[in-house]
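Support request, please re-run this one:
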Amino acid sequence: MDISQEEARQSLGQIEETARRARKMVAYAGGDVLFVVWGIIWFAGYIATHVIDATVADARAGIFIGSVWAALVAAGIIIGVVVDRRRMPTRSPAGWRIGVVFWLLYLYVDLWLALLFPFVKVQPAQSDMFWKHLGAIASTVPMFAYVIMGLWLDLYMLWIGLFVTALTLAGLYFLQPFFWLWMAFAGGGTLIGTGLLVRNRWK
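Re-run finished. Output below.
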């Protein structure tokens, strides 16, 4: 079936209008606040990881780091629920689906890592690099979601996802001694900046 230029323009206009409404929905549903909150969580978590990694030399380091991240993630979830309830009138089916995408992405990554872990043997001399690689995976997972969101909502999100992914790889391979600090500023700072962008550009 042939489509006229006018029909094509109308279709493109409808797609752009849908994307515009989706951007507004994300902003008014608390997306701006949540980006900033998770940026702060990333910043605090990676700073704490760096400090613990530099000061605790035995197996307790992993326990301390895990506890810090568990507390931070729990706080982020609680704040997310509070923000969601406060902005209840603006919720829409698309809103909760975006959140579910992030959670499912992390769930599947955790599943894949769990499936691979029994076959991974880490020597003591390699353990530091191993955990930094896991940190890089944890950082690039949400960036992949950014890229997907950017294809549908705003190309700025796509470029943020690609940019932070590149920063993560650069830190992992060229700034390894400072990787955790690097991710605090590169990852956490970008999330905070994204929240400010959503507030100022999408509303």
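The radius of gyration is 19 Å. The chain has a mean pLDDT of 77.
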